[in-house]
Amino acid sequence: MTKVTLAKALNAGLRKAMEDDPKVLLMGEDVGKLGGVFRVTDGLQKDFGEGRVLDSPLAESGIIGTAVGLAMRGYRPVCEIQFDGFVYPAYDQIVSQVAKLHFRTRGNVRVPMVIRIPYGGGIGAVEHHSESPEAQFAHTPGLKVVTCSNPVDGYWMIQQAIASDDPVIFLEPKRQYHSGKAELDESATPAPLFTSTVARPGTDVTLIAYGPMVKTALAAAEAAATEGRSIEVIDLRTLSPLDLGPVEESVRRTGRAVVTHEAHTNLGMGAEVAARISERCFYSLQSPVLRVGAFDTPYPPSRIEEDYLPDLDRVLDAVDRAFEF
Amino acid sequence: MGPLDPATDPEFVQLLTPEGERVEHDEYAFAVDEGQDEANVIRGFYRDMVLTRRIDTESTALQRHGELGLWAQLLGQEAAQIGSGRAFRPQDFVFPTYREHGVAYCRGVDPLQLLAMWRGVDQGSWDPNESNFATYTVVIGAQTLHATGYAMGIQADGLVGTGDADRDTAVGVYFGDGASSQGDVSEAMVFAASYNAPVVFLCQNNQWAISAASERQSRVPLYQRSAGFGFPGVRVDGNDVLACYAVTQAALQRAREGNGPTLVEAYTYRMGAHTTTDDPTRYRMSEELERWKLKDPIARVRAYLTRNALAEPSWFDEVELEADALGDRLRAGVKTLADPDPMRIFDDVYVEQTDELATQRDEYAAYRAGFAPASLQEARA
Predict the structure, then answer these.
(1) Closest residue in chain B to residue A65, using alpha carbons only
(2) Among all residues of chain A, which has the CA nearest to that of B149?
(3) What pTM value is reported for the model?
(4) How many other C-beta atoms are found inside a 10 Å radius of the C-beta of residue B230?
(5) Do residue A97 and residue B125 have CB atoms under 8 angstroms apart?
(6) A45: part of which helix (H) or strand (E)?
(7) Is B64 a catalytic residue?
């Protein structure tokens, strides 16, 4: 077993997928010689050649649109969008074409492609480099949307996403790329892709997170434990479809739920999760489901992003409010 | 008419004049495949164009009768579509807009399958992998990227420049003068040039993007756009089926041989409306339409065949009868295109159905089952 960062784990997962299936192609801006601006594709062009790892022209709609054609031809393109804020030029192709082709053609055309998007803030970046657009894609039928929170999930989930015959938006928490290592057992059997998981068991309140906020949620649970409060942390992993079985099971035990994400609070994933908990666990709830997200403003200049992003204290503040209700 | 007037453009490829005279061109000649009889091929084009026009006029009538929700008319663009459509080989792949009814016909798509889409029964039911003709694309220009990617795939498959006519493959993608302004079209040309993809961009410049004249889209002739991307562009008389065939065939062959993309601008005219909801009298002069009627793509072939005694009057009558029969089939057939089962809403959203959607489907099925059958409701009323 080796200890790897998220970036290395994704790299290893991509490599494995390319070894397993010659139809898997990587494409995107600077993914070849440079290995991507975050080095997630480091060394892959050297080993698989320019025919498998395509440095594309600087045009996101072009990357996604040509990937659709490649998928129609039988390939499995894995597209890298360099930063979250650069996905919007490809938005039409993703929403109007990628998401709808299978439905439009009554199943005659499949577009098995993965769109990798480094997302989220906290890295001190300039504008358009720190966004969390997941709800926009989760709101689009025809797409599947997943996000990994740790190196082990990154390794398995990217391979599972590539193996999926449906198009998958694959969100990578960019501030976790190089932030810590985990033991990776490549012989283990991973959980199915579209499942949520209990990241830390607890008994008093259910804290639901995904992607970059899982680490914060776990730290919050650790801090709360020192004060005698037991937080159960659930890592959603899949945003569309949602897998709320573990959430419902947890909330029926704890009676309280807080959901957190970096994205804007208004109409974010938290709103959907809260609504479903209300629909399905109403009589178990002892307080309203609370949301902790970013403010409903554009992403601010990086020097004040710590105020914008939900952090450990804001999460615990919401947990406190759940008990004060 | 300024810079867009083909009469002032020496690059304009025409091989059959509006009067039905064959003319020479320096670079392009109409040539049929070995073993084919030229007159027979031209008669075939005539027949294709007449049948295509009948599909169009019949469908317009069916919309007026309420059988179709909408129809996008191609009247006047028959030569641009049949000339290019007949230049493809079976292994080539074609990406249409939503107006390529003539190309669909060339690729063996049953016109009733087109009607199903315009009736609102489905969103394109033909299998693109059987006809090598993709589903209609409504978002303008989006398909140019799909075509370029598909062509990149053909290239990766090693099916370009093998020298085997049955293996070498090209992609053709249709779009209009309006779509030429879309960013996707420019991006497609960037990618196609960058990867030397075997794709032919087939722009039917029909002069009008709904109410916007083609001058609104471009200050230079559209075919010249390709120069900026680094591949050739050709402007062809889009109402001349022989020229459209010759130019498209050459461009496809160039792509199949591994020499990369070409832009073909078929300079034509949309004699009908944009769609059946459109009213062209609000934005263009009838005098313009009358001028283009003199360049009718079908009339000139008929004149050529007649003048050169390549078809008897009775042969033209037979083609008309065939068109009548096609019209009958469409009128009868459209009524058999039944509404789909509402539960189909939930099908094919994903290859692998999600539990969430399966639950929605089951709940809606139970909800529907809660209503009395329609027959019972009528009886009660």
Answers:
(1) B145
(2) A66
(3) 0.96
(4) 14
(5) no
(6) helix A44-48
(7) no
Taking the CA of residue A93 and the nearest CA in chain B, the distance in Å comes to 7
How many contacts does A have with B, using Cβ atoms within 8 A?
Answer: 142
> Each residue of B54-110: pLDDT tens digit?
999 999 999 999 999 999 999 999 999 999 999 999 999 999 999 999 999 999 999
pLDDT band at residue B10 using 50, 70 and 90 as cut-offs: low
Q: H helices of chain B, where?
A: 38-64, 78-85, 101-106, 111-119, 128-131, 142-156, 183-194, 214-217, 225-229, 241-256, 286-293, 297-307, 313-335, 355-369, 374-380
CB under 8 Å to A91, separation ≥6 — which residues? A136
Indicate the residue of A51, A65, A107 with minimum beta-carbon distance to B145: A65
- Work out the mean pLDDT of chain B and round it to a whole number: 95
d(C-alpha A175, C-alpha A6), whole Å:
10
Tell me the pLDDT tens digit for each residue of B126-156.
Answer: 999 999 999 999 999 999 999 999 999 999 9
Instruction: Determine the pLDDT at residue B1.
Output: 39
Six-digit token pair at A294? 């970013």
CA dist list (Å): A124 to A97, A130, B1, B175? 34, 9, 56, 43
Mean pLDDT, range B353-379, rounded to an integer: 88
pLDDT of residue B11: 72
Tokens 């130019």 locate to B247
B199-205 vs B262-267, strand pairing mode: parallel
The reply to whether residue A103 touches residue B188, judged by beta carbons under 8 angstroms, is no
Q: Provide residues of B within 8 Å CB-CB of chain A.
A: 122-129, 134-135, 137, 139, 142, 144-154, 156-157, 183-184, 187-188, 190-191, 194-195, 347-352, 354-357
Confidence of residue B125 (pLDDT cuts 50, 70, 90): confident
SS3 B87: coil
**pLDDT single digits (tens) B17-49:** 999 999 999 999 999 999 999 999 999 999 999
What is the distance between the alpha carbons of residues A109 and A101, in angstroms, rounded to a whole number? 6
Lowest mean pLDDT among A269-273, B4-8, B94-98, B266-270: B4-8
- Tokens of residue B90, six digits: 């079976």
**What parts of chain A have a pLDDT lower than 50?**
none
Cα B123–chain centre separation: 17
Suggest the residue from A72, A140, A248 to mutate for an interface test with chain B (most B CBs closer than 10 A): A72
Residue B360, pLDDT > 90, answer yes
Residue type, A2: T
Give B373's pLDDT tier (boundaries 50, 70, 90).
Answer: confident
H or E element at residue B93: strand B93-95
Amino acid (1-letter code) at residue B41: V
Q: Give residue B3's pLDDT.
A: 45
**Does B8 have pLDDT greater than 80?**
no
Indicate the residue of B125, B127, B352 with minimum beta-carbon distance to A166: B352
Residue A291's nearest CA partner among A309, A311, A312, A266 is A266
Query: B7 pLDDT exceeds 60?
Result: no
**Peptide bond preceding A241: is omega within 30 degrees of 0, i.e. cis?**
yes
Asked if B273 contacts B209 with a C-beta cutoff of 8 angstroms, the reply is: no
Distances, alpha carbon B320 to alpha carbons A98, B298, B304, in Å: 42, 13, 18
B207's CB contacts (< 8 A; 6+ apart) are: B177, B213, B214, B268, B269, B270
Cα distance between residue B305 and residue B121, in whole Å? 40
Answer yes or no: are the C-beta atoms of B263 and B231 closer than 8 Å. yes
List phi, psi (to 5°) of B14.
-135, 130
Backbone angles phi, psi at B210, to 5 degrees: 45, -105
